[in-house]
Amino acid sequence: MEKISALGFLLVISFLTRHLACQGKTLQGNCLTVEREALLDFKNGLKGSNTRLSSWIGGNCCQWEGIGCENNTKVVISINLRNPYPFEEMSEKWSLMNLSGEIRASLLELKSLRYLDLSGNTFEGILIPNFFGSLKNLHYLNLSNGGFKGVVPPTLGNLSNLQFLDLSSNEFEESLFVKDLEWMTSLVSLKILKMDEVNLAMVGSQWMKALNKLPFLTELHLQYCRLSGPISSLSFINFTSLSILNIHGNYLQSKFPIWLQNISSIIFIDLSYNNLYGQISPGLGELPNLQHLDLSGNRNLTGSCSQLLSGSWQMIEFLDLTNNNFQGTIPASIGNFCNLKHLDVSDNALTGSLPEFLEEIKNCSSEGVLPELRELHLSWNKLTGRLPGWLSQLKKLTILDLYDNKFQYPIPTSFGTFRYMEYMSLAHNELNGSLPVSFGQLFELVELDVSWNRLTGIISEQHFLKLTKLKVLWMEGNSVLVLNVSSTWIPPFQLDYLNMASCNVGPSFPTWLKFQKNLRRLYMSNANISSSIPNWVWNISSLLDISNNKLSGSIPPTIGESNLDLFFLSLSGNQITGEIPKSIGYIWGLETIDLSSNSLTGSIPSSISNCSYLYILNLGQNNLSGAIPKSFGQLKWLHSLYLNKNKLSKELPLSFQNLSRLVILDLSYNRLSGDIPTWIGTAFSSLRALKLRSNAFSGGLLFGLSNLTSLHILDLAENNLSGSIPSTLGDLIAMSQKEELSFSEAGYIIGNENISITKALDQDKLIVKAKNQDLEYAKSLSLVVSIDLSSNNFTGEFPNQITKLQGLTFLNLSRNHINGSIPQNISMLHELQSLDLSCNNLYGTIPPSMSSLTFLCYLDLSNNNLSGEIPFTGQMTTFNDSMFGGNSLLCGRPLVAQCEDDDLDQGQGQSNVEDENDDGFIDQWFYLSIGFGFSVGILGPFFLLVIKKPWCEAYFRLVGKIVDKVL
Fold first, then answer.
1. Buried b (16+ CB within 10 A) or exposed e, 318-341
2. Angle made by CA atoms 701, 703, 707, in degrees to the nearest 5
3. Is 514 exposed, middle or buried (0-12, 13-18, 19+ CB in 10 A)?
4. How would you classify the pairing of strands 575-579 and 599-601?
5. How far apart are CA 935 and CA 930, in angstroms?
6. DSSP state, 455?
7. Cβ neighbours of residue 28 closer than 8 Å, sequence gap 6 or more
């Protein structure tokens, strides 16, 4: 029997060998010779193949790495040369596995090839070969992240057996692109299509209709494909088996595709970060198999959150509606979602309070309220009321984000019972009462944010008892909250971020901070600390903000040697004395230095110019003296420079013209002299605030004002400037219209994390002299448009071109020698809030149009040579006589002096009376007689009723009876 079997096997081998030989195919080992040679030729075209494909030797190609053969015929059916290591890591392992080079057409010899995967390699921007469309038996083609670029060949449409196609790119590659999708309609067997980051901008608006012709399509992935326009409305749905739809991150401007709610097979929908709009039908909540729904970041999707969340979703696990316009509130029926793990409805328009209780869960394998929920995000809404007790019953909750709502009342003590809580944000609400001591039991907590509430009471060591994993603690803005811990307390945690600004931390500097070895951000401004600064503070954190306290002492000379990682330093508003140490220039990574409002003396060290990434430098309101260092011209990234209210002298350094990114320059209240440099107009094209007030500058305004196209604030008051005001003042484009430009728009994100720049920009503040007072602007700085040239020696006529600056809010030209008349069209300055033209030589009348300046709340025209009647109507009626005093030829309200026309009218009236004929005398006595008779008729009975009391009572009884009958 064994002999017969062996004989049969030999006969089969002999038949196959003869059959293959007749077709020109011979076996070498366990591999067809023609296919082996084709694979070797394919290998020779690749780079990096000597390492990756070192096993491609010998006759048995079916055993080569990445090659798969059919068991019986030994023909090659699969090539899998995918790089299994991610490109982002660029590790040694990735390099060893990476292939590049050319892809040769010898692959066409692999007639039975069904599977081809070249993904994750770097083919250095070559085109996808056209001949791939001739591999007619391909079922699987994966070229994702392979370094291909150029147009996707339409010949791929010939692959009628293809079931899987992945052409996805990544952010590191030059993108592939497709001109149209018509060729794709021939892929009638296709089930999975992945084209993430392939450029589809040219395919037009009918792309969805084209894909709808693929009857077996189950997965569609088109993230970041630059799709735009509407999503086609489908009257007939052909891909009824669709389970995954992902078109995240495109430019679609379309109503929500309502036909989606008719695909019962759908499991995964991601339409996030497009520009979809319109009403979401509650019918979407009835999809029986839906597990993942992400509509976040569309901004204009609307609908009732309570209706949508009252649907019959049984399988839903992930639900994200962030950054839209959903309304309503969270319904109690959400308790029925027993599989829900992630819920995010933040940044919408939700109102009302959270339900006190949730509906009982039905048909769930797990017990309890929302038993699988891990993340709950309700931030940036308008939810009010109490925090309900069921929140603390969410057993698996790891993230609770209620940031920026209007929740009230105390934080429930039960919030300290979360077993898995890692992140909790209750910030920017109206919560009151004390922070529960039970928070000390949240042993998994990593980040806690309770900032900007109305919390009171004392924070003690018990609040942190078991918080060994805590990394981030934000308590800012609870001004009544008191931190009271022992001076010997050693915290159980090591923080990365700590913000206790505007809390009561003092009076002593907290000694427990010196045990924090990993601290990267320390915000402790306005914390009622009134001690000296301990030596260990200077190297505790790379961001140090201890401003607006009553800290004393000096900056150590070795600060530049102790903390080279420091990038943000704010000591403003304290009582720091001494000089600025030269070693501060050793900290080359500094982006913000704010030492303002202290008592620093000496000169400004030129070594600061070594801080080449410096973004904001504020040394204002100290007692610094000497010249401004010439080396400051090296600070190429400088955005804001404040040296105001010091004793600096000499001229502006010529090197300043290198500060091309400067947005704010405040040198006011110093002793600087010389002419204002002519290069300011060309060098500071991004400048938005120029303050040189109260110095000793002289000369005229010769610098190119018209080049300062971004300027919002120009303050040159209290100098010795002379000459006429140039007409180019009207060319300040940024002042010519009402606009809200951020003073940070001209800035640049450099160096460290964005948080540093955000904090730095909070330092941007300016004091604008207007309305006869000092006004400080910070957050609203972009709204200020101001010109102040007061207290100089300017001559010439009033600059009429200034009326072109229609965004101007403050204008002060007082205490100069300006003559001429006020322009009749001054009402074009319709945003004007303050106008001071006092103490000049202006003449002529006050334009009547000024009464239409509805925002004007301060006006001073005193001490000029104005004449005529004051147009005392509209907004002008809000100003008293002192605003017009010192103009001897002005008359009319609110002044005492009457205009001559009024006297003339009165005299003319008297003349008319005297010219009346004798009939006037008779008419006067006629009307006097009538008046006398009327008085007697009315007053006679009145006096009788007063004198005769019984008559009075009888009279009013009669009147009462008549009234009763009428009623």
1. bbbbbbbebbbbbbbbbbbbbbbb
2. 125
3. middle
4. parallel
5. 9
6. E
7. 36, 59
Distance (Å) of CA 69 to CA 15, 38, 163: 20, 14, 19
Taking only the tens place, the pLDDT of each residue in 247-264 is 999 999 999 999 999 999
Residue 708 pLDDT exceeds 70 = yes
Q: What is the rounded distance in angstroms from the CA atom of residue 942 to the CA atom of residue 953?
A: 13
- pTM here is 0.81
Give dist(CA 657, CA 537) in Å, integer.
37
Amino acid making up residue 849: S
Burial category of 52 from C-beta neighbours within 10 Å (exposed 0-12, middle 13-18, buried 19 and up): buried
Quick one: how far is CA 1 from the chain centroid? Answer: 84
| DSSP state at residue 2 | H
CB–CB of 407/386 below 8 Å?
Answer: yes
Task: Give, as one character, the DSSP assignment of residue 794.
Answer: E
What residue has token string 């309502």?
258
174 C-beta neighbours (distance < 10 Å), count: 12
- Name residue, tokens 């239409």: 852
Of 13-17, 18-22, 834-838, highest mean pLDDT? 834-838
Contacts of 18 (CB under 8 A, 6+ apart): none
Q: What whole-number distance in Å separates Cα of residue 108 and Cα of residue 41?
A: 11
For residue 539, give Cα distances in angstroms to 505, 555, 754: 20, 12, 21
Q: Tell me the sheet residues that pair with 714.
A: 690, 787
To the nearest whole percent, how much of the chain has pLDDT over 90? 74
Contact between 626 and 649 under an 8 Å Cβ cutoff? The reply is yes
Q: List, for residues 852-908, the tens digit of each pLDDT value.
A: 999 999 999 999 999 999 999 999 999 999 999 999 999 999 999 998 865 544 444
Instruction: Give the model confidence (pLDDT) of 743-781 as tens digits.
Output: 444 333 333 333 444 444 455 566 666 666 666 655 555
C-alpha 951 chain-centroid distance = 84
**Among the listed residues 294, 281, 280, the one whose alpha carbon sits nearest the alpha carbon of residue 245:** 294
Cβ contacts of residue 793 below 8 Å, gap of 6+? 720, 721, 722, 816, 817
Whether the upstream peptide bond of residue 507 has omega within 30° of 0, thus cis, is: yes
Structure tokens at 751: 């160096």
State the alpha helices, DSSP H only, in 656-804: 680-683, 754-761
Going 813 to 817 to 819 to 821, the CA torsion angle's sign is: positive
pLDDT at 281 over 50: yes
Residue located via tokens 């605003």: 883
Q: How far is CA 634 from the centre of its chain?
A: 31
SS3 labels along 880-903:
CHHHCCCCCEEECCCCCCCCHHHH
Q: Is the pLDDT of residue 18 over 60?
A: no
* Cis previous bond, 894, omega within 30: yes
| Residue position matching structure tokens 């990445």 | 66
Closest residue by Cα to residue 167 from 130, 194, 190, 188: 194
Tally of CB atoms within 10 A around 235: 8
Residue bearing tokens 């009561």: 504
* DSSP per-residue letters across 411-438: PPGGGGG-SS--EEE--SSEEEEEPPGG
Q: What is the 3-state secondary structure (H, E, C) of 576-616?
A: EEEECCHHHHHCCCCCEEECCCCEEECCCCHHHHHCCCCCE
